[in-house]
Amino acid sequence: MKKWKKQQVLCLLLVCMVVLFGCSRTRIIDKLGIVHVFGFDQAENGELIGTALIPDYTSSKEGGQIKSIEEQVPTGGLFAPRMSTHTSTPIELAKIRVVLFGKNYAESGIQHMIDRFIINPQIGTQLQIAASTHSAKETLNAFKQEKSLTLAERLQHNMERQYLPYTNLHYFLNHFYGEGTDAYVPMLTLDDQNRVKVDGIGVFKEDQLKLHLNPDQTTLFSYVKSESSQATYRIQHREDEQKEIITFRSFKTKSNWDWNQKEKQLKLHLQLSVTLTQIPDRFDLEKTKDTSEMEKIVEKDLEKGLADLFAILQENEVDPVGIGNIVRSQDRSWEEETFYKDYASLPISVDVNLKIIHSGLEG
Amino acid sequence: MFRKKRQRQTKNYETVEKSISDILEKAKKSSDFTTISPFEDNSLQISFYKTLIDASILKESILPYLKKETTAIIQLSELKKVIPIEGINITNDLAVVDKGLHDGAVVIYFREKNNEFALLDINYPRLGQRETNDTQNEFSVIGPKVGFIEDLTTNLHLIRNHLNTSDLIFEELVIDTRARTKVTIAYLDGVTNPEYVNTAKQRLEKLDIDVSFDNTQLEQLISDDTSTPFPLFISTERVDRAVGSLVNGQVVIISDKSSYAVIGPVNLMEFFSNPEDFYLPSIVASFFKLIRIFGMIFSIFATSFYVAILTFHFEVIPKDLLGPIIISRANVPFPPVIEVLFLEITIDLLREAGARLPAKIGQTLGIVGGIVIGQATVEAALTSSILLIIVALAALSSFTTPIYKMSNAVRLLRYPFILLAAIWGGFGIYVGVLFLIAHLTRLKSLGVPLLLPLYPYRKGGVMKSFVTLNTSKHDKRPWYLRPLSLKKFSPVSDKDPKDGLNHE
């Protein structure tokens, strides 16, 4: 008798567990609209326009079918329900790989949307966040024409092997909310054949896109910002009579900052190990003299370029390098407000130390 | 209450014969019972079951000598002088006669004097037994391939021959009430903890069963927990495995008419080791053992994770895998659970059919199962091709477990996990793992916890249960089995001569 009671209790417990926990809704993988890229634009009346690219694997064996859905909504929370009215499967945001901000929207402020990214547990911080020089809708429609889903890879390999500084949502949030630094995102643009290409970085001031750095400036920026940048840089030497072009690819960079507390001066020591990929014929790098001359030319050019870069950043009062943070690490009495009041006039001097590790390899 | 029980134990299920004529009358009903009288006056009778005796001994060593002494035999005791056979037993106990007849003895008696019988034991237990004793089901590439057969004396011989020590004790018990199967408990005196021997002996003695068909059935009858899918004893047909566990201080139970030796007490990780592990270099052997453990885990969880991920957690699939999985599932009309259950049951049907089919048709089954069913289900869009790979791998890895009973348990376990995954996803698998661990920790083998070196934790045993050590480092018995002596051997560490041709 007692044993039966025990079993009954166990059965009841199991039934309860099934009924109570079993309410979780199934999301069967082939019956979902999995958003791949999401773009945000600002409509003229202040509402948001969302563009989602959803790969449609099920319609054909080969895949490659991409569906794009646009919807204008008053607030971000309504995107999923409104978009679902267009689709035969529920919209799932969990696998978003790239979030793209159109130019208008990025310039008018993205604070509200970034706050939503933080509270949404479905979204991973590995995703790429980017801004476009056109509207997100235009960019994504151009990307859809390419029939590929490789936007995230296009950004990522440019970060790992080319001139973009490494970033993703995790880094972005750190820069966005952190003190003494401003957020930056990779910029996308459309070339004359209407293809999507990576074009430098965009720098935010608070939550508004303020400055667009071109690829050359971005390269210099990556040298300072990321230690393992493999960006290629081009130097035009002797512009007067015949042009001489030097290109090199960095291998390892190390930047040391010296903060002079008394004179309020900042000095950057940049150590750069590079591979020379193209040099004028008159240099023979087997000779020490030519090597040191080459180093001098490049160092000088880089110092000038970096000084110009800092001038531009200071002029626009943006701080993607995180100078505020660097000073804070060496100055106990640092305060954000007072520091950025004088930020534009902060003297920053640059000292580049170049090391040629090898040369002659094209590529 | 106690009295009732005791009565039941002594109760005899067989009919009891009162007199010798009853015995003979009853035996004559069987066509294989023969009574011959070597002399014309019919005074001396020889009765036997011709299916149990060695007919050649009867013809060559009994009948000729009897015929020579035509008239001399008046007393049965004279037979001892006449017949050159040992084991002549003269008795007047009817029960002994009855038993002797069924053990393959020849009964010689005078027709007139029904109070004395001579029993000549000329049984032939190997009659009808196979001669080949290759290991059929526990194969290994390296190592002896001798296995047990269905005859007790042969099996005992194999063990005694391999482990030639006076410490090796065979204790014989007769367990069945009807078939009177002989069961032998083997252990090493001074090594095996006597508690295990006593436990095993007590459980066997308390058995009340009419016919025991196989040792594996006995194993379940004396098992600590009968409602578990896990085996609590290792049943092996390999002689080296049986001898190895004897040396380690375990008890081996061998019974007549069974080609399996039962080893106890055991722990869970022993089910994943193989005698071959000790014939290979320890790094290789450890790798293989880890592969087997991985295979077991993969086999249990692969398909349930497939169900959980495809039904609830698509987020964890890498982006590059998302396309192929969705494309392969695009035309499948079922939810993942049905799809998985369909394939899993198909594989189990194939396995069961493969085990039951006559050997000659077995090859056809491979073609039917492998090509037709596998290929056709995918083409007919009943399952996805990715699932087919996962299920096939899981089935393959379940067969890596060396002990067949364990691999069956592993095969069975995946079904509850698939169902749990279908109801609750990853959480369900988690709940299932908790239940599984709770169940495993409760299991015991001859009173010893099954998860022994892992739980209850015994220091130093954890590493040993996952990797196989060097033979020279294997000099101690597993102390958690509480053997009476711990040290097995002490190898010389430096085996090189200090001066020699190649010593530099």
Automatic annotation (TrEMBL), chain A:
<dbReference type="Pfam" id="PF25198">
    <property type="entry name" value="Spore_GerAC_N"/>
</dbReference>
<keyword id="KW-0564">Palmitate</keyword>
<keyword id="KW-0449">Lipoprotein</keyword>
<feature type="domain" description="Spore germination protein N-terminal">
    <location>
        <begin position="27"/>
        <end position="189"/>
    </location>
</feature>
<comment type="similarity">
    <text>Belongs to the GerABKC lipoprotein family.</text>
</comment>
<keyword id="KW-0472">Membrane</keyword>
<dbReference type="InterPro" id="IPR008844">
    <property type="entry name" value="Spore_GerAC-like"/>
</dbReference>
<keyword id="KW-0732">Signal</keyword>
<dbReference type="GO" id="GO:0009847">
    <property type="term" value="P:spore germination"/>
</dbReference>
<protein>
    <submittedName>
        <fullName>Germination protein, Ger(X)C family</fullName>
    </submittedName>
</protein>
<dbReference type="InterPro" id="IPR038501">
    <property type="entry name" value="Spore_GerAC_C_sf"/>
</dbReference>
<feature type="domain" description="Spore germination GerAC-like C-terminal">
    <location>
        <begin position="199"/>
        <end position="360"/>
    </location>
</feature>
<dbReference type="InterPro" id="IPR046953">
    <property type="entry name" value="Spore_GerAC-like_C"/>
</dbReference>
<dbReference type="InterPro" id="IPR057336">
    <property type="entry name" value="GerAC_N"/>
</dbReference>
<dbReference type="Pfam" id="PF05504">
    <property type="entry name" value="Spore_GerAC"/>
</dbReference>
<dbReference type="GO" id="GO:0016020">
    <property type="term" value="C:membrane"/>
</dbReference>
<keyword id="KW-0309">Germination</keyword>
UniProtKB/TrEMBL annotation, chain B:
<dbReference type="InterPro" id="IPR004995">
    <property type="entry name" value="Spore_Ger"/>
</dbReference>
<dbReference type="InterPro" id="IPR050768">
    <property type="entry name" value="UPF0353/GerABKA_families"/>
</dbReference>
<feature type="transmembrane region" description="Helical">
    <location>
        <begin position="371"/>
        <end position="395"/>
    </location>
</feature>
<keyword id="KW-1133">Transmembrane helix</keyword>
<dbReference type="GO" id="GO:0009847">
    <property type="term" value="P:spore germination"/>
</dbReference>
<feature type="transmembrane region" description="Helical">
    <location>
        <begin position="415"/>
        <end position="437"/>
    </location>
</feature>
<feature type="transmembrane region" description="Helical">
    <location>
        <begin position="290"/>
        <end position="312"/>
    </location>
</feature>
<comment type="similarity">
    <text>Belongs to the GerABKA family.</text>
</comment>
<protein>
    <submittedName>
        <fullName>GerA spore germination protein</fullName>
    </submittedName>
</protein>
<dbReference type="GO" id="GO:0005886">
    <property type="term" value="C:plasma membrane"/>
</dbReference>
<keyword id="KW-0472">Membrane</keyword>
<dbReference type="Pfam" id="PF03323">
    <property type="entry name" value="GerA"/>
</dbReference>
<keyword id="KW-0812">Transmembrane</keyword>
